Structures are given as C-alpha cells and as structure tokens.
Fold these 4 entries.
Entry 1:
Amino acid sequence: MAVTAEKYKTAYDLIAEGASIKKKATFRSFDESTAEDWAAIITYNDEGTQTQVLDLCLEHLEKLKHPQPASPVDRYEHSLQTATRAWRDGRDDDDEIIVAALLHDIGDFFAPHNHGDFCASVLKPYVRPEVYWIVKHHELFQGYHFFHHYGVDRNVREKHRGHEFFESCRQFCDDYDQTAFDPNYNTMPLEAFMPALHRVLDKPKNDPFSAS
C-alpha cells in the first residue's frame, strides 16, 4: 500500500488554518527556525510594514526639496510635475505609472549614480514588470535628451532597442520625465496622488516570499 507523504505546512498554511500563532519567534539561527516562528514574524512584524513602505517613500520624496540653485526646479517639483504630466496625458487610470512618475527619482540622495535601480528595487513587489523596467532604465533613456552636453553618447539607450518595454520607457521619458522642469507649470499637489500611492503601495502584488 503506497504511503503518501504528508505535505509540509508552511507559515502561510498555519496562518490560513487559523492556527494559534505565538507572539515571538524563539530561534537563535535561521537553521533552528520553524514554520511556527515564521508565522509569528509574518503575523506580527508585517502588521505595519506596508504603511512603513509608503511613509519611507514619502520621506525620500520630501528630501528632494533640497535646494538646487542652478536648476530650473528642484527635484521635488520635478517629481510632482512628472506625475502631473502623466496624469493629464490620460494615465490617471494607471496607478502604477502615476506612482512611478512620482517616485522615480527618490534614490537621488542614496544612489546618485544608479537611482533608477534604487527606486525600481523598492517598487518591484508592487508594480507590473513593464513599470519596473521603465523605472530601472529611465536614467539611460532620459540621457538621450542631454548626455551629449556632457560629451557622452546620447544614444546609449539604443542597446535596449528591441526590448518589449523599450517604447514604454521611451514614451515615459520623452513625454513626462524630460519635460518636467518648467517653473511656470501648473503642477498638481502631492495630495492628488495619495489615493494612487495607497492603492499601489499598501499591499505588494508580487510577494517574493509567497508560495505562488
């Protein structure tokens, strides 16, 4: 008679079953940890995690108000203006694009030479692959409009020509990002974008630790 191995119960299984969850994990190393330990961590540590992500993104966005005397606008105004231009171009029903437009430069202070990678990593669990790719590569695509003034090849984005998201990134940068430095533009306030921020960042859609 064949014996069927009992399926191992994961932390998510225990939570779904409504099992009694202990208040605190008790392991001293990951090797010692159990599904019960991780059920506790998921249950109690994750309670405030999602609002923390949004709050931290807003803190980083606020840091972009740092004065840049030689620039037409500071990076905070640039970020709001990018999101506004996307909104008024009919993307107001695409929360992920609006959030990407608003937050695409939040890594400027922490990763000035690869801030696209920084922001893309933050947004990856929350957005579709197209939006992740746009944010990750927007620096190179943006460069088409000014790299030549630094003596750098402005066509460096061409190495991605043929990628399924090339045109999406080009359009994002050409129409929203590179145009968003107008000090006289009627920019929408941050409050207008808060509903979209909540809808996107309150819960990840691509959880790297999910069973699926």
Entry 2:
Amino acid sequence: MYFKTTQDPYSYLGIDTVVLFTKSHNVSKNSDLFKPKKYKNKKGKEVIAQINNGVRVEYRAHSDWKKEYWIDFSLSELYNGYNFSSDTPLDNRGLYFSLITRLNEMGIFIRDWNKVQVSRIDIFRNIKLLNPYSQYLHLLRMAEIPRNKTKFFKSSVYIETNSQTLIFYDKKEQLANNKRIDIDDDVLRIELRLMNAGKVKDIFDSNFLYAIRESLEDAYNSYIRDTLNYLKEIESIADRVPLDCSDMKTALRLYYAGKRNIDRLVDETIDALRSSHNLFLNDGSRKPKGHSNFNEAIRKQKERISKKKKKILRTAVLMNDYLTGEGGLAQELIESILETQVKVAKFPIGPIYRKSLAEHLRENALREVS
C-alpha cells in the first residue's frame, strides 16, 4: 500500500506515535476479521490484541461495565514506511488513508470519531543541521524544564516526568542503526511525547482527538521556546564582547560590566566551565531535588541558588563557544528552531506517489553495491 503525501522531512511539525482509545459501544467489529491473540506482557498481564501493517488494536475489559478498544500506531511510519518525514496530516482525509482502512481490514469500525480520545501523542520536528549533530550536543545538554528529570543516554537528551518527555537526538544515527536507512543530512530530532490522557487533557483542555488538532503547534512551540530560550544569550555576548577578544577573563569582565562583584562572577563562571566537561562527556541523569515543605524560605533559597548555578554554567559554555569561533552553533539553533516555526501538514488535494520502506532499502543496497 502506498500513501499519498510528500516525503518532506523538514517543512512540517510531524506526528509519530499516537495512542487512541474509545469505549466498546463506539466500535462495531467483524468477528471473521478481528481475531486478536492473547499473550502476557512483560508485567505478566494478559493482553488481547491484533496488529495489521503497523496498527495495533487492543481490547481491554477493565470490568463488566468498562470495556475499551485501544489503537496505537506511528503516523509517520504509516505514511512513509519509516519514521522520518514530517508530512503527517491528522485531518479526516489523512486519517482515512493512513488509519481507517487498516482498521477496517482488521474488522474494526469506529462509529463516531468525535468520541475517540487520545492517551498519547508524540509531536516532532526535524532540524537540518549545517554540522554533525555531535557538535551541538553540549548546547542541548544544558536544556532543562523545571521539576523534570534530565537524563543523558549516549548522544540523546531526555527531559522527562512520568507524564511527558522531551527528547533531543541524532535522527541520522537512529535511522542508520535501527532501520538501516542512510540519509545524507545531519538531523536533530526534537520530540515532545505527551504520555497519558491526563497530560494531553492538561495541555489541550481536552483529550478528544478532533479537539486537539488545531492546538498542536502552539503546545509544541511553547515547550520548545521555554526550553531552549537560554541559547539567545549568545546574542547578548556578541553585543558586548568584540570578535577579536580571545581571553576568557577579559571577555567575562566586558560581559558582566555594570554588575556587582564582577571578580567573583568571573571566577565562578570560569570554575563552571572547568566542571562542565563531566556534564558533556558522561551519560547520567539529573533529578529535580525535592525539598521539605515545612520551611518554604529554605526551599526557595535552594531553588534560587540552583537557578543561579545553571545560568552561570550556560554563560560559561556559550562564552567559550563564542571565543573559540563556535558561537554560530547556538545562533544556528536559534534561527532554525526558535525563529522559524512550522505547522502540522494538511492532506494534499492531489495524490503524490510515495516510496515504501522496502524500496528505500533496495535503493540503499544498490548504492552500496555500486
């Protein structure tokens, strides 16, 4: 089966994993086609599910009066055969071509799509980089969201709670390792995963599928803007420090001019730069620190100290990049992410031929032989 969207990975805000659910009385089924298998998951719980070409349908009987059908899939993979293109329409025609036909092939028919709810949705953006992904990793590892756990795994950065995850990772590397697909571009994937129905409802004021579609861009862009806004400090540095300056202490004195305790600020910033190497070289995690509520003043004081240390670290790293001629890395991310926003695709009026994953694998194999 071929789906009818473009193969553009960069022009849109894409949708990867989607998990939907609806009550059993909103589903009619053809028992001759819907023949789910029973098995036990990793937790030992019995699962009743059937899979058809990337679409998984699970029947859950929570009780005699609460029975549901859960549907999960990767919208990008349904359209493209593999998860790279961001051209992933979520409108009626897009759902019909990418999802509904596969459900019908399994004997599952949704009576009213307005009653279908979202339990999870992963929204992503691909950023075409001018340099290898690894050159930007130290900047991405400074990203944080308040009260979230930050985790580093290989070249990926995870900022997460139990209900949401924001991930920065090397899409070129991931495609090569997991899908055996080689692409020429260096690509940063920024993916926001809203992991349960409560979080989806909290973000969009609703978790019904058709109620959230028009708000996806605002939600995603708000998260990214708040998380990466620290990069804009490179512009303040460029305004205050001349390009021919190469000495860290001199540059910091110029940057901190007008502030109290300049000597102390300069020393703290240089110390932060020295200690930053462990942050950028090692896998690990940083958990949000919990403080007892019995003394609100102490809790707030610790938060202020922690915030100040993070700000000094970011200044140190960005200043070092600027003095070593690498300030363009942060500026590139600012222009391509913060200053350029994209929208979720709409389904095209005319059909456009798409290649399947098998065709891409054959093309890669032919290139290797030649």
Entry 3:
Amino acid sequence: MIFSPDGHCRPFDASAEGTWAGNGLGCVVLRRLRDALLSGDPIISVILSSAVNNDGNRKVGYTALPSQGNRRSSKRR
C-alpha cells in the first residue's frame, strides 16, 4: 500500500514510510511593470517575453511531452 500505516510519512527522516494525502495552493499575481513601479510595489521578477504553441495532431495526447516545434517557441535567457 502506498499510504503510511500510521498516517505519518515523516519526509527526509530515517523512519520515513509511505505517503499521505495533502492539499496545497499557489497563486501568482501579475501587474504591469509601470503600475508596480508607480505604486512602489516590490519587483520580484519581470516577464520579458512569452509564447504559445499547439502541437495539434502531432502528439500522442495532452500528457505527452511537447514536440520540437513547441520547444522552439520558448527561449531560455
């Protein structure tokens, strides 16, 4: 069985055993740079560019890794 028998998984511990269900949430709030600067908000990161692509019928399914064309649509800086 994948679940911990006693309900405690103790990650990173020598007595770690199994897993346990959990919940989590993440949120990213985006604002235009100009507006953030005018408001005095802390600038943590700036998005320089973005891209969107669709592999269409050239992929096995939505869980499959993207094709070369999809990889080329994004550049690392």
Entry 4:
Amino acid sequence: MRKQKKYNKKLVIGLTGNFGSGKSTVAGLFRELGAYVIDADKLARKAVSPGAKAYNKIVKVFGKAILRKNGHIDRVRLAGRVFCDRKALVSLNSIIHPEVIRAIKEKISASKYRIILLDVPLLIESGLSRISDKVIVVKASANTIARRLSGKRGFSIQEIKDRTKNQMPIRDKLRLADFVIDNNRSFKNTSVQVEKIRRKLWKS
C-alpha cells in the first residue's frame, strides 16, 4: 500500500505506463480539463543541459563521445548506450532521478494549482507513486505500441524491445493502479475514459 504524502489542499495524480503507451496524449487531455501537468521527461532534459549538476556527472561516467559538437548531450547516442546495457542504465538513472524528483517536488510545492498531474514514465520505480494521491496507468498492447512508435517516431522493433524490457512489467503497474486507461482504441475513446476519471477526482 502506498504511503501518501499530502500536499496542502492539492490533489497529486501520478500518471504512468510503459514506453509508447500514450502517456503524453493522456496528460494533454488532463491538461485541457484543468490539471497542472509536470512532465518528468522535460525536467530530465533540463537536468542534463550543459552546466547542470547531472550533466557533469554523466559526461564523467560516459565520456565525451556522447556529446554533440555544441556540447549538449546527444540523447539518441546516450540512449543507444544505456538501453542495451542494464548496468549503464542503472548508473544513468542514479544520476538523473534524484535531480528530477527534487524538481518535481519543488514544482508541486510552488504550484498554485489544486490539481497536479505527474507525467512520469518511471513513477513507481522512482518512488514518486508514494507522493501521489491517486495513480493512473495507461496501457496499450505490444502491437499497438509497435505500430505507433515505428510509424510516427521511427523506432525499430529492437529499440522498442530494449526500452520496454528495462521497465517494470505493465501487469505489475496495473496492480498498483487506482485507475486504468486503455489506449488501444481511438483518441475519442481515450478522451471519454479521461473525462470519466476526472469526474471521479474533481469538478471541472
């Protein structure tokens, strides 16, 4: 059972799901319904920008070969290193996660919004589910994920498998969910599911 840390008069909702399940789409729908969305991926990109604390640690661990000519970390090159090497991924996460978690907590505390949604791929693995009042898991079949990622974002099947295998199995995430959104069908169908959850959590 999750230990809930309450933020004064704020409803903190954790949103997660496996790679390619459509979390960003769902987060966008909740944003339209009035939620303040905190995007962990955006915070992670900021955490690894030149001059940031995590940036220096990453370059020290992985070397300058992961850098672009302008000094920024080449995220594609870095991903190629870590998603096929479990130890490298653990090392990278140990550098980035503390910075992202700190930034998320600061944003929650500073926000004037009552409804806050955390869009975090590793919500449960990072422990951020413990500060979430409710957890929503987005699910999609392997075939749906492969079709979307290979078509729109150009990922190979192997790249999808490499990223998925390093995440908690979706069945385990589903066991910890307060709400589940099935994102296998149309955008309209997903919108209807989001609205139903919104009605249970807060008034528009």
